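Re: that backbone. Tokens:
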């Protein structure tokens, strides 16, 4: 089966999609969504888009983006989502790697002209640049179209760039359905779910949690064009959202805005978060201020949600663990602490970079994630850092993520990244880059870590206070940018 099979099995009169965009809201039932998908698919066919070709989609959250993704699936093309913040250098790289014949964007969004940008991009295979502002959809005409099969490519999703080296991750219809079925099963989500999130749908988190998963289940997906915590809370109340997914930064924003002006969030039950350690106070504040249960997860563009804490776990487990493996996936930790995974939602490879993907596979078929982890003591995992993010202080390997998690337990710390900076004698030392209350000192942090019983050699030896940390659209901290600032 594919997502198109799922869509046709839901009641046509049920609300499928709500898109808050262009100053208003567009509501589409499953029947209306399928109609627009067919008309978008007809438009792509008339442009000469064929089976297996990548259609590059650089759009904010909108009904047009959702319909275009599904329209690609309808005719066997492959959607290539690109987050709106990407600019000419990155877009040129992605267009040329995929040899995409069609690029679709808004003419202008948030003061930036995509029309001007794409006109200056050198991409020899690009035949059409479309702007949804100008689109007129033709009547559906899909006679003779053969839809793709479960094993055919269904997405080329570029990694979000925490290392500055994006790769085009290829998922099939099978792997996408597996990851979304699994994450829904563990959290007991059903066709009654109403989802929302802060990330763009062109990022893998938004693509899966807030488009693919609710539509697969027969639920309702609420999409919001751009992030604003106050506006989002109003929408959560108005639409009766039951499930939200987002990085801890989105969670903190919502908590602060809700505390300032409370809304009726009685239907919001579940908040899933990942990409960074969760402070214990966030678990409590999510419960007390938002009225929902917080779950911690770990995953990658390459395999979606692989581990997650469970409803059956104590609530505070979200601040202590990254969860246990979802159905269909397996995890193992090597003697060196490297986290490796395999299973039903593992991607098919990297687009036209087969050698890069093969280098990530072990001889016995496990995918080496590049993350470091340990057993959480409850049958799950706790991420301790990135293999390429290791700080080697002399002969000592500093467990970066554990230090970050410990610092987040300080009452004045709101966001943190621990990164290495060069040292002539030791090679590297650790710097804590914090978003924190004014007046926090390095001595304060040392007293705090000593009180937690953390080994002194793990303590940061430098402190930088910043108003915010650089992040990818999904909320992951771009540590390479921080390291460059510390040289």
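Recovered sequence:
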């Amino acid at each position: 089966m594919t997502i198109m099979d799922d869509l046709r099995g839901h009641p046509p009169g049920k609300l499928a999609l709500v898109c808050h965009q262009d100053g208003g809201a567009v509501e589409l039932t499953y029947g209306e969504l399928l109609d627009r998908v067919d008309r978008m698919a007809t438009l792509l066919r008339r442009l000469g888009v064929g089976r297996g070709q990548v259609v590059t989609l650089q759009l904010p959250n909108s009904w047009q983006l959702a319909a275009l993704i599904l329209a690609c699936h309808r005719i066997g093309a492959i959607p290539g989502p690109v987050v709106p913040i990407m600019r000419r250098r990155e877009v040129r790289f992605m267009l040329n790697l995929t040899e995409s014949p069609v690029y679709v964007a808004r003419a202008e969004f948030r003061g930036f002209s995509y029309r001007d940008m794409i006109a200056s991009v050198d991409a020899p295979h690009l035949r059409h640049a479309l702007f949804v502002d100008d689109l007129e959809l033709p009547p559906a005409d899909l006679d003779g179209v053969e839809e793709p099969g479960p094993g055919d490519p269904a997405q080329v999703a570029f990694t979000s760039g925490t290392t500055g080296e994006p790769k085009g991750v290829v998922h099939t219809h099978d792997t996408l359905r597996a990851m979304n079925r699994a994450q829904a099963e563990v959290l007991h989500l059903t066709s009654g779910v109403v989802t929302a999130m802060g990330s763009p749908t062109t990022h893998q988190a938004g693509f899966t949690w807030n488009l693919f998963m609710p539509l697969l289940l027969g639920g309702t997906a609420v999409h919001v064009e751009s992030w604003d915590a106050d506006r989002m809370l109003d929408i959560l109340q108005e639409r009766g959202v039951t499930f939200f997914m987002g990085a801890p930064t989105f969670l903190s924003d919502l908590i602060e805005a809700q505390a300032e002006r409370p809304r009726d969030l009685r239907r919001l039950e579940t908040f899933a978060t990942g990409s960074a350690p969760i402070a214990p106070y966030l678990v409590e504040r999510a419960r007390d201020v938002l009225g929902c249960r917080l779950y911690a997860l770990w995953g990658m563009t390459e395999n979606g949600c692989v581990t997650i804490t469970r409803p059956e776990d104590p609530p505070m487990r979200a601040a202590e663990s990254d969860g246990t493996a979802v159905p269909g996936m397996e995890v193992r930790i090597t003697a060196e602490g490297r986290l490796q995974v395999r299973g039903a939602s593992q991607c098919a490879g990297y687009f036209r970079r087969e050698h890069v993907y093969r280098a990530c596979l072990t001889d016995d078929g496990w995918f080496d994630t590049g993350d470091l982890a340990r057993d959480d003591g409850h049958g799950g995992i706790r991420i301790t850092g990135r293999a390429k993010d290791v700080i080697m202080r002399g002969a000592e390997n500093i467990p970066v993520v554990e230090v970050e998690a410990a610092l987040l337990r300080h009452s004045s710390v709101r966001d943190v990244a621990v990164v290495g900076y060069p040292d002539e004698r030791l090679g590297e030392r650790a710097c804590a880059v914090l978003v924190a209350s004014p007046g926090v000192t390095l001595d304060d942090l040392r007293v705090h870590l000593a009180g937690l019983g953390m080994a002194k050699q793990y303590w940061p030896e430098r402190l930088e206070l910043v108003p915010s940390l650089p992040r990818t659209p999904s909320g992951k901290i771009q540590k390479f940018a921080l390291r460059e600032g510390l040289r």
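The CA atoms of residues 88 and 327 lie 40 Å apart. The mean pLDDT is 93.
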